[in-house]
Specification:
binds 3-methyl-2-oxobutanoic acid, 8-stranded parallel beta barrel, 12 helices, about 270 residues, alpha/beta, globular
Length: about 270
């Protein structure tokens, strides 16, 4: 006879992903922002789920991630956590929640963990946030770093182009990656940087390096779930592989529903009480 406890898959933790890197196993990560999608993503077998601040683009239609609030992150993360059994759930610290002071960063990271049930937080930046990362990890909260194209700095960058193509920025990024590891990050995301540099970073640190638009030489990959499912019609960057093309499927299903309602063929006799 089986019990619930026996049937439950073993939860992925910081120890699991550290071991995966040590053993050369690639880590599969996707974003999710709601309960229903999180259940499907977890059932698909990803190791990690990122409740990214991209939720404010995908779910709320904002152009940048800057408007995302801590309350909204807590809400989305709580919804995701309820739908997940196995994957490790990481929540983004939104813009403005950790930049003012280390004290503010620690207080907000604690709140995000306590009120959402996430297993860790992600923060964008290098050396300039290492003191805050040290304080947050000292409070027992796993931190995932994020370097390269850090969307919370889009106004400073002047767009979403590939970062660290020049030697000086590449050198800074490599130093920042080492600083993040030294500050206690358990993993880091590298976004939209040259593949050779990303591979060099992955080889220079002992923590898992997860790439998005950073080539194959890293320890794992992350994509925005609605992008890889083809739900975001106009968004086709070079790094994106489409694993489905759901936008036309959904639009066509809704078109068929509208036609049936208008024709009076839905509901049928079998579909009523
Ligand atoms: O917010 C997000 O979805 C992210 C990923 C793109 C890494 O930070």
């Amino acid at each position: 006879m089986s019990t619930n406890t026996i049937d439950k898959p073993k939860k992925v933790t910081t120890a699991t992903v550290r071991k995966m890197k040590a053993e050369g196993q690639k880590i599969a990560m996707l974003t999710a922002y709601d309960y229903t999608t999180a259940r499907l993503v977890d059932a698909g077998g990803v190791d990690m789920i990122l409740v990214g601040d991209s939720a404010t683009n995908v779910m709320a239609g904002n152009e940048t991630t800057l408007p995302m609030t801590l309350e909204e992150m807590i809400y989305h993360t709580r919804c995701v956590v309820r739908g997940v059994e196995r994957a490790m759930v990481i929540a983004d610290m939104p813009f403005g929640s950790y930049q003012v002071s280390a004290e503010q960063g620690v207080a907000n990271a604690i709140r995000l963990m306590k009120e959402s049930g996430a297993q860790g937080v992600k923060m964008e930046g290098g050396r300039e946030i290492c003191d805050t990362i040290r304080r947050i990890t000292a409070a027992g909260i796993p931190v995932c770093g994020h370097l390269g194209l850090t969307p919370q700095s889009v106004n400073q960058f002047g767009g979403y182009g590939v970062r660290a193509k020049e030697d000086a920025e590449a050198k800074r990024l490599l130093e920042d990656a080492r600083a993040l590891e030294e500050a206690g990050c358990f993993a880091m995301v590298l976004e939209k940087i040259p593949a050779a540099l990303a591979e060099q970073v992955a080889k220079s640190v002992t923590i898992p390096v997860i790439g998005i638009g950073a080539g194959a030489g890293v320890d794992g990959q992350v994509l925005v779930v609605t992008d890889m499912l083809g739900m975001n019609d106009g968004f086709r960057p070079k790094f994106l592989r489409l694993y489905s093309d759901l936008a036309p499927v959904i639009t066509s299903a809704i078109g068929n529903y509208c036609a049936d309602v208008r024709a009076g063929s839905f509901p049928s006799a079998a579909e009523q009480y």
